[in-house]
Design goal:
Largest sheet: 5 strands, mixed
Strand content: 15-25%
Distance between the termini: 138 Å
CATH superfamily of one domain: Biosynthetic peptidoglycan transglycosylase-like
Structural class: alpha+beta
Shape: elongated
Helix content: 25-40%
CATH architecture of one domain: Orthogonal Bundle
Oligomer: single chain
CATH topology of one domain: Penicillin binding protein transpeptidase fold
Number of strands: 21
Radius of gyration: 38 Å
Length: 748
């Protein structure tokens, strides 16, 4: 029988053996776990290389240039402007640290408090990983990873954070971070965000502006100042006894409720506070202005407010004024300011002033830095259609365009000047212009509208590519085909008299008069309607005319008929009025077609691109080897050019308006009419002008000017092409030709 000592020894031996066994099992389990973990890590390999921040992959903007290589616009997926740490205001540095990584300066590559909190939350929730990241992790994620909330992403994030912290110091990491995060509205990076929202540099940001920008990365779309301004800034709230409420969100709101908001401002101004480590002792508080029982105001008008209760304190403010109460509602910006105050980045006085300055705070309306917006948007949309949109936005392409900056500036200047002059005189608010180089087919000037950014007046409307009634400017094409079909010449006689055509169609002239016998040249220059319809029939009518005009880029003629049939189930027929007004084509098509006349029936492909170069400096597109085509014999175009430039067959006095001294210049004009009833009781319609057209061309340049209102507002009765469109055309064409060689059309 074993004695007591022996039993005790055996028990101790068994316990030690079990401990050793457990320890060995743990070691084996640890090795197995390590082996499995290393294999798991190997499955996640390779990790990105972060040794050189210059290798961080970033989309590169493509740039559009004019023909002299001046930058017009950047096409981007992410708009960026990089700034070094030294050029970022300390307010912004402090705000982003206070909001995103409280212990950024002191933690190594990890934040132990953050890790404990993350594990604790995960164990309690037993759900997908729910944790916030410190700044280095966020930098790793936005640079290399996705937003997918998985263990795999978190492991990669931790690994990359270790790498970043081992290579860069804290200032470098913060610089990279602020030059990488997204601030909404295509504002990537702090400098671009500062310019977008405040029109200042990142080096000029004050405390309020810094707290606003630091609020955005958490939820940029939701907190956008253009989406949910209230959720970003917070706001004074006026509660009326009737139960209604008014949020003070804009400068206009502030002005309308100036007395009420001044009460709140005065309340904040009087507050004073002492920082007592974990709480603030706030004084000069009237207890009647605090509605929460969480805050006891003593006889000295002071209360103690813990930092984590500061937002509750602000939301407890309620100041009575007449029949209403003025309160303050906190949101994301107030959270940032609270954290900055708690971490002693700002004083209580600065804290108060930032809140007061936020009342009715207005953000700058964002517009892209863009030169010649009408032409640039046309280029951009064509590039997106021809190439992949993402490729253009990120591929660092250099797009050299045909636009002539001298002519484009002149066109914009003339249109703006004429609009100012004519809004009062004629009620014509807008105009458009397109100009082509006839020899090369290049677009040298394009203005859609008087002001691209004038939303209220239809600035975004592209009138150059809008289908409009060309009226008499379409007649030369009818006459040209009739001359070919029937061997007419400019001396062929037509009678301008009342005439009834098939289908009982009896057109009138615009002046309701007749000029009787006249030559074809005079009929076209005087724009007589009856001879024009006669030429329509001589040209073998609609089908032949459309077939003839197909090489002239007049695609709208067919497109309109196809769309009409698809919508209504039957064919649209232009018929004889086609010679006068029933067709609709774009100013672009009209200019392109007239350029064929000007270029002696040689059709050049119309282009807006000189060349495109990719990121490796390869030329991927050029207009050097353009396709050209002779549409018809030169003798035919000589006839139409000689008619439209014939100074003897134009109405008396028009040569002063339709000429460039010393040059051959052809011209066609038109003012359409639209019926309006001035008063409901009027028995007859009042006929007022509508589209105002002027087409001029020389052997060198073709230009089309259009004017009217897209709002369909009527013009004054005296408005027509001579008073509105002609001044733009005259000055533009004179300017465009001043340094060009004088050319003449050749007969053969």
């Amino acid at each position: 029988m074993l004695n007591t000592n022996t039993k005790s020894f055996i028990n101790k031996y068994n316990i030690i053996s079990k401990i050793i066994l457990i320890f060995l099992c743990l070691i084996i389990l640890g090795f197995i776990s390590l082996f499995l973990f290393l294999n798991y890590l190997n499955s996640l390999w390779p990790f990105p290389d972060v040794k050189d921040y210059k290798t961080i992959p970033l989309p590169e903007s493509s740039i559009i240039y004019d023909r002299t290589w001046w930058e017009l616009y950047k096409i981007y997926l992410e708009k960026r402007t990089y700034v070094p740490y030294e050029e970022i205001n300390i307010n912004m540095i402090n705000a982003i640290i206070a909001s995103e990584d409280k212990r950024f300066w002191s933690n190594p590559w990890y934040d132990s408090i953050w890790i404990i909190r993350a594990i604790f939350n995960w164990l309690l929730k037993w759900s997908s990983i729910s944790w916030t990241s410190w700044i280095t992790q966020q930098l790793a994620r936005v640079t290399y990873l996705t937003d997918e909330r998985t263990i795999e992403r978190k492991i990669k994030e931790l690994y990359l954070s270790i790498e970043l912290n081992s290579i860069f110091d804290k200032k470098d990491i913060l610089e990279l971070y602020l030059n990488k995060i997204f601030f909404w509205w295509n504002s990537y990076w702090v400098e671009q965000a500062s310019q977008t929202y405040f029109w200042i540099k990142a080096s000029e940001l004050n405390i309020l502006e810094s707290s606003i920008l630091s609020s955005l990365p958490k939820a940029p779309t939701w907190l956008s100042p253009y989406n949910n301004k209230y959720a970003l800034l917070g706001y004074p709230l006026i509660l009326n006894n009737s139960g209604s409420s008014i949020k003070i969100l804009s400068k206009n709101d502030l002005d309308n409720k100036d007395n009420e908001v001044n009460k709140l401002t005065t309340f904040f101004d009087k507050l004073d506070a002492v920082n007592a480590w974990s709480y603030l002792k706030i004084c000069w508080i009237n207890y009647r202005n605090i509605k929460s029982y969480n805050f006891f105001v003593d006889e000295l008008w002071c209360t103690n407010v813990k930092f984590n209760k500061l937002l509750l304190f602000l939301n407890s403010i309620s100041i009575e004024y007449k029949d209403s109460y003025i309160e303050y509602k906190t949101w994301r910006k107030d959270y940032i300011l609270w954290r900055m105050l708690e971490d002693k980045y700002i004083t209580f006085e600065e804290y108060k002033q930032a809140i007061i300055w936020s009342f009715g705070f207005e953000f700058n309306e964002y517009t892209d830095a863009i030169r010649y917006p009408h032409f640039v948007i046309y280029i951009r949309d064509n590039l997106f259609e021809k190439y992949w949109k993402e490729e253009i936005e990120t591929g660092w392409y250099k797009i050299y365009t045909t636009i002539n900056p001298l002519l484009q500036d002149k066109a914009q200047e003339l249109i703006e000047k004429q609009v100012i002059t004519n809004i009062e005189k004629f009620w014509a608010k807008n105009a458009a212009l397109i100009s082509l180089d006839n020899k090369s087919g290049e677009i040298i000037s394009m203005v859609w509208w008087v002001d691209y950014f004038d939303k209220s007046n239809g600035g975004y409307n592209n009138m150059i590519f809008a289908r409009l009634q060309p009226g008499s400017t379409f007649k030369p094409f009818i006459y040209m085909l009739s001359m070919i079909k029937e061997w007419f010449t400019k001396y062929t006689i037509f009678t301008d008299a009342k005439f009834t055509f098939p289908w009982d169609y009896t057109p009138n002239n615009s002046d309701w008069k007749y000029m009787w016998k006249m030559t074809l040249s005079k009929a076209l220059n005087y724009s007589r309607n009856i001879p024009a319809v006669k030429n329509y029939y001589a040209a073998w009518e609609e089908e032949e005319i459309i077939k003839f005009l197909t090489p002239f880029w007049m695609k709208s003629l067919i497109d309109f008929k196809n769309e009409f049939k698809e919508k209504n189930g039957y064919n649209y027929v232009y018929a004889a009025p086609m010679a006068l007004w029933t067709v609709q084509i774009t100013p672009f098509e009209l200019a392109s077609a007239y350029s064929v006349f000007a270029n002696s029936w040689i059709k050049n492909e119309i282009t807006s691109i000189l060349k495109i170069i990719d990121s490796k400096w390869n030329i991927i597109e050029t207009n050097e080897n353009k396709i050209w085509q002779r549409v018809l014999e030169q003798k035919y175009t000589y006839q139409i050019n000689s008619i439209l430039s014939n100074i003897n067959d134009r109405p008396w006095g028009w040569n002063y308006f339709l000429a460039i001294p010393g040059r051959q210049m052809a011209a066609k004009t038109w003012t359409s009419s639209k019926q309006y009833k001035k008063e409901i009781d009027d028995e007859e319609d009042t006929i007022l002008p509508k589209d105002l057209w002027t087409v001029w061309y020389t052997p060198s340049i073709t230009t089309v000017v259009w004017a009217w209102n897209t709002s369909w507002e009527e013009l004054k009765i005296k408005a027509y092409w001579l008073t509105w469109a002609w001044p733009i055309m005259r000055d533009f064409m004179d300017f465009a030709h001043k340094d060009l060689e004088i050319e003449k059309w050749k007969k053969d």
